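By way of example, what follows is a protein record of this kind.
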Amino acid sequence: MHEASIVLGMDDLAVQEEVLHFLDRLPGVRVVGAADDTSTLSRAVREHRPDAAVASPALLESGDLDGAALFVVAEKETTSALRAAIRAGARGFYLWPEERDVLARDAERAGRPRTEQRPSAGRTVAVFGPRGGVGTTFLATNLAAACSAKDADTVLVDLDPFFADVTTALSIDDEAAPTIAELAPVANELTGEHLERVLHRHPLGFRILLAPHRPMGSGLDPAVVTASVRALRARHQVVLLHLPRALDEPTRAALEQADMVLLVVTLDVLALQDARRALEVLRASGLEERCRLVLNRVGRGEIVPDDAERVLGLRPVAMIREDRAVRRAQDRGQVVAGRSTPAARRVSALARRILDEGRSA
């Protein structure tokens, strides 16, 4: 990886000085220019042709960045600043100085060759729980964090238009944030640039395509689902699909796009019965071979993992132990990925398996 060349564009000179000193100390970053107004920023980008521009919201009208990645830095997160960043096609929005470590990681990534940063075909993994309460949202959100922690360019897509559990699980309370519903008008001409403008950035590095903030009476259009997943797959290494329980047309459209389907099951009679019925539907659609069994909240009980394997005909690829830290984290809108807990370690191992299979595919 070569050094990432960065041009700064900050209207506040004091903040610019702080950001400059911070980035200049990073081994993988080199600041090649700085500006405090839009015209100077545009000129610096043309002269230096940097990998990325780090700019404040006030300077986002600087025009064409000549292909450079855009990272927006602000001392406060406001709706107007976030909207300006989305309109400008920013890859990330960072609070200064609270999120400077995340900025550092993303800035260093900008120096990677584009063939590594934007793979031609990413890995699409659907996370599907045939019964409510088995931990589908837990697994999807924590896998996103775990894959991102392993330096994989990761996007989490919430395809549940009625409950939008990912929004709650990750404590996203900005109702002005764009969602998948905004892609409907451009479904027939959807590009990666359209998607970049609607992705929400999580502090842990992965990005999220949110479900609608209000329940959709008619559900998602399967064409929007298919187009969104295909466009994301072309630009990102890992695309995780958080699916609703119902096997309706939008869900089936998502499953058709998946390279792997993680079937999330707990060790109880109703969960096993629902998983068995779901497998019958998937088998009829020719998708059974893509399914991998994940047993969640495994503990002592009358039903054991061997029972699940016998009923479903699938050997578990992961068994996530019962972990009290999960409930505490969920109540705070956090993930356990990256922590030293039993559940976190199993999720990390599963993320490693997904990435390894993607490299060997």
User: Anything to note?
Assistant: DSSP finds 14 helices and 13 strands in the chain. The first strand starts at residue 4 and ends at 9. The mean pLDDT is 89.
